[in-house]
Amino acid sequence: MTRAITARGRVGSWALNLVAVVGLVYLFVPIVWIVVFSFNRPNGRYNIVWQRFTLDNWLDPFADADLTDAFQRSLKIAAISTAVAVVLGSMIALALSRYRFRGLAGYNLFLVLPLTTPEVVLGSSLATLFIDWDVTRGFTTVVIAHIMFQVSFVALTVRARVRGFDWTLEQAAQDLGASPLVTFRRVTFPLILPGVLAAALLSFALSIDDFIITLFNAGSETTFPLYINGSFRVQFPPQANVLATVVLLVSVALMLFGVLRSIRRKATAR
Amino acid sequence: MSQPHEPRRPRPARWNRRQLLARGGALGAAGFSLPALLAACGDDDDGGASGTGSTTGSTAGGTAAPGTTAAGGTAAGSGEGGELFFENWPEYIDVTEDGLVGTVDRFAEATGIAMRYTDAFSDNVEYFALIQPVLGRGDTIEPDIIAPTSWLAGRLINLGWVDKLPLDQVPNAANLRTDLQNPAWDPTGEYSLPWQTGITGIAYNLDATGRELTSVADLFDPEFKGRIGMLTEMRDTVGLLLNWLGVDQSTLTTFDEAAEAFDRLAQAKADGQIRAFTGNDYLDDLSTGNFAACIGWSGDVVQLSLENPAVRFIIPDEGGNSWADTMVMPKGAANRDQAAKWMDFVYDPVQAAQITAWVQYVSPVAGLQEEVAKLDPELAESPLLFPDEETLARLSTFANLSEDVEAEFDAAFSEITGA
Amino acid sequence: MSEPDPTPWAEDTLTRRAQRGSEWFGLATLLGAGALILAIGMRLVTGALAAVAVVVLVGFVVALIVAAVAGGLEARRRLAPYGLLKPGTLFLVLFYLAPLFSLLRSSLSTLPSRFAVEAEFDWNFGNYGDAFSDFGAQFGRGFLYAGIATVLCVLIGYPLAYVIAFRSGRWRNLLLGLVVVPFFTSYLIRTIAWSSLLADAGPIAGSVRWLHLTGLLEAAQVMDNGRLINTPAAVIGGLTYNFLPFMILPIYVSLEKVSPALVDAAQDLYSSGFRAFRKVVLPLSIPGVFAGTLLTFIPAAGDFVNAEYLGNPNTTMIGNSIQDQFLVQNNVPLASAMSFVLMVIITVAVLIYTTFLGTEELT
Questions:
Q1: Which architecture characterizes domain A65-269 according to CATH?
Q2: What is the value of ipTM here, to two decimals?
Q3: What's this model's pTM, rounded to 2 decimal places?
């Protein structure tokens, strides 16, 4: 860049960077709190005020049996719902990005609707459906609810990743004599897999964290966020921080792993 | 095979390359953490029901700091005598600590019954909302015994959602205080047996207020603006206000009689005088000073004041409220014999004294003073645990409202608590 | 962008008509199946009629498969998208659309008695009257807090997105990853974190007192009676925080599409960097801002977690009321009415907003 940078421009630029840094720090303050307070040893039953440092919580993260139970339940629900949602959503994403067909524009809108409806409405409406059908709310209804908001999410995420792909590769494979099934397995699937896995990770995390929709549809079932909310009257154990940090670290690690792999792949491709 | 093409624009991906993962990474994460969790807990995974079902005698939260009690629940007993599930309020039973064996453990030892005790009750309305969809359909809920406050017990009895108690198997029920026999909420006395009774008054933190409090008017003192807590329990909050305004709460029949109390309450809330409406969870805020003063229940606050001497409980000059939490068996409860054994056990004066000595509430069992004196002579003299005539005269009980009038009260109160 | 469908256009009209025919067929089976499952879900058809509907539904699916198999390669290509769409679409229709109708129906019902568990549908519009008269304040607060939070998100999020898009160089992916990290922590615990950070005995309140800023903040309505938590500001702060990534990412996406060469050219043209930004970059980023504001405002308006943990009895939002009426008071008809009103107001607002800014893709 050859133009002169005015003093005002430099100050403005510096100010912009500062605001951005502040924004980033702001994003991380509670995250840091969560991690730091997982090492806290509270005096009472609320892990809200810093007392002293301890490794006990990490050495015994499953001390609170009910909390651990709820966490397991969340993991189970997340695993099942993510698996189903990934299949349904990826199929939709494939259809939207690979083909041109009638009704595409309208369908886009339909797909986005669940994401633009407030969770309160999503949760309460689904609950009224279950009430209508006389279905007792519990584990299954929670799974269904999670799949519902994950499908749109997966579909849009995978589609965004898959956009701009060179679909003639498939054509090439079929010209070379591959059957549609083989084409899918050897050509299409590996190409969309990164996007699918990314969507799976994110929707898995969303499922573990989901509170509002789950609250309306859980009946007497408990999940990790529901347990924390329900027991908050009485306690907030540091083990909750520990479990949350574990989820965070595992997710970040998976992300990093994926990035490293893509960097390596790019390097070898040269 | 590369083809010449125009420079690739960065892909307009919403989630970018950063999200790339190894195959099965996400599922792998779930895969290797789940077995670890299952191994660590040793829980039998029943897939459907929530909560732990271990029958080894242990109190959850073993590594918790001293002074904290198991919030998650206690499970004890070998299971030979059957099972029992009692869902109660928090801090409402003596636990095993400091060399003393808690009632649940003593009971389990004596009878061999696998007892599950949880303290999921924080607020009557909330609890009712949980059981209503189930009991309303004619299904059964898990607990065999629950301990709603008397008015809720009355409602459950009227709705037919509770079974009669197996009182023929509870000889110690004869120890029930005479003033609690055949009460207004259970005229035949066949459906309920009180667990504990108590007093609603004012709890305050001397460090936070700077002075001693004596009256309900103190709760409306602008000096404490934003540091007052009140209960989501309508009858306790409105009841104290009615006392203050000179209205007799035990003879209420219409909403209009109480309208002034609601107006005052609404005003206080709008002014920001009240920081929050709480269920059983006011204790922490009181301890830290978030609440300078609040409406509270005698036993809880007295327990807290043992740890934190700055916390005090008073019956206001205008009078306090008297209430009872009572054991009922939800319709279809399975373990009737075990429940009978439990009720018989806790109505034995020796056992009841141990409970009272810990929870600091007014026992429904008559003639307990001697037994409690054996454990703690000072406690036996406390007017809060063994109210004398004079104290009793200062306590009122909220009237039994008809369903329609109750709906009016609840609606008005709900509007104020802001939900 | 490469064409998604590699099939070359048919040369002769006969094949083209066949192509279009199979497209219509595919669409018809999709819509037909969707309509049927909606009817079943809404309980418009019950009993024997429902069984018939299910049979017809299955018939639609089978017909599509048969046509695809029998029709040859061409037909398969045309029908494939409809086949791929079907499972997910039917699921969404049953569990997203049908519930909205059952919500509507529930809102027009009455409870026979106060503690009954089943409401009877009887075109009772009274619930809507109650929703507005009793909970008008909560509606107002919900939209007000969400609105303020959205504005704050734009003010904080836009600079961050800008810096990541144009100034991060090789740190770009790292920064984006950092922005996404909050998604992986529990929403509830993040809010509890703020209740600890803003607590009276916490670090932030302590710093404010130490800096003697209490008076200033009280005048600005941020603090109330010397406390930061249990105030409207805390609730708005929580909302802003929790939805900030939803603002940053769409803005980033639209900024990323702007080529750096364009930015350079603009800065050459205009005398100041800011004007270059205002005239060139900002208009191009409007779709992102639009998407971000929607993705922030809509969930924030219905939120109740922040108000519950960070607010006081005077800051309850409509989400709190819906949750209370639905799950605590068990007044499902009233709660349904409130929920439906919320959805309608938001939809109307989105439509108005869209006409001003044009129908942009939200993705």
A1: Orthogonal Bundle (1.10)
A2: 0.86
A3: 0.82
